[in-house]
Design brief:
Shape: globular
Radius of gyration: 13 Å
CATH class: Alpha Beta
Largest sheet: 4 strands, antiparallel
Strand order of the largest sheet: 2-3-1-4
CATH architecture: 2-Layer Sandwich
Number of strands: 4
Mean pLDDT: 91
CATH topology: Alpha-Beta Plaits
Low-confidence stretches: none
Order of helices and strands: EHEEHHE
Strand content: 25-35%
Number of helices: 3
Structural class: alpha+beta
Helix content: 25-40%
Number of domains: 1
Amino acid sequence: MAVYKIIRIRVHDADGYAAFAEAASAATARHGGELLFQNDRDATTRILLVRFPDAASSWAHYGDPEIQQAVAAAKGSFTRDVVALEGGS
C-alpha cells in the first residue's frame, strides 16, 4: 500500500537548504519515491507531497544515511514537519 508524505519545510538559510534538497531528491528517487507536488510561490516555506510504493520504502528513505548526513550538515538552515499517510494505490 502506498505511503504519502506531506512535508512542510521552513527555510532559514537558502544555501544550506539547497545542499540538503539535492541529497533528499536523490534519496527519494533511490527509494522509489515520486514527487507529486511542490509549491513554487514562497521561497521560505516549501510544501511537498511525495508518494512511496510502500511503508518499507518510506522508512528506508527517512533513515537513508545520505539524508541523515545532509540534515546534520544543514543544521539550522531549515526546519521541517513530516506527516506520513498510508493508503491509496
